[in-house]
Amino acid sequence: MYAIPPKLTNRTIVVGLSALVVLCAVGPMLWAISTSLKNEVVRSRPSRR
Amino acid sequence: MVWFLPVVVLLLAVSLYPTVFVIWMSFQKTRFYDLTGFVGLANYVEVLSSRTFWDTTYTSLAYMAGSLALSLALGVFAALILNNLGRTGKLLRVLTLLPWTLSMAVVGTIWLSLFNPSYGPIGHYMKQIGIAPGLMLGDPGLALWLTVLVTSWWSFPYVMVIVTAAIQSIPRELYEAVQVDGGGWFPKLRYVTWPHLIPTLGSTALTLGILYLTLVTLLIVLTGGGPLGATTTWSFETFRGTVQAQNIGPTAVYSIVVLVANIVLGVVYIRATGRVSA
Fold first, then answer.
1. Which of B110, B233, B250, B272 could form a cystine bridge with A32, CB 3.0-4.6 A?
2. Contact across the interface for A32 and B95, Cβ inside 8 Å
């Protein structure tokens, strides 16, 4: 009936688009958290003075 | 009859009194925060005949319409997609909801860093693929649309949650009826899901429209109303006039414009849908 089983194709598209949605929502926050951690590491280095 | 009097008094005190006070203030001449005399419609003439007012009108309406269009589209899309995933969808919905839970000041700070043309990752990747990032939020032609993008990123999860609730309340029999008639994914969306979403989308658009017209924090953090006034909305001008310029009379006129715009939005919604609440 179908050249490609429709459920599998739909599943792939759904999972792909879901990942895209979640990445768009969470990505900027993850970037901010990772940047803040990096800054924290720099700040916690002992001063050269 | 007397049992509801405390509520009436409370409503008058916290809602009606400030509104009436602002209306009264818009007819007054001011010297910093002091009201110095009645000037009739002079403040209205001054504000409505100024070019700044019409610039802020364009910015406010463009900001509201752009943010509404993008957040509604993204919210509906996210709800439709994540609704297919069952239990995993629930978890992903919680993750997607996170931007809405953040303070607007935090959202602004995150995106201010992301859009920074010198050290922000967006500018960095644009340079890598050979596109000059330009000034980003410092570009008068681009700042408003980037602000719209950030506002939509922050508020689309709200639309997603509301739309998900609406989708999940649709009776399963309607989908089965379409399936019996040989309809697939698109007919189900077109003839079952979409008609059920329209009233919900209307009330969500009204809520968000009022929110966008009164929103100031994100604009303060992202652009400060600039560059060259490109992101100065009515509400931002109200904030600027009150806190920075301390020119209360004309600023009260801006407040009343926002109030009237919100009332118009409400009336249009009620007229369009024939209902008071969704």
1. B110
2. no
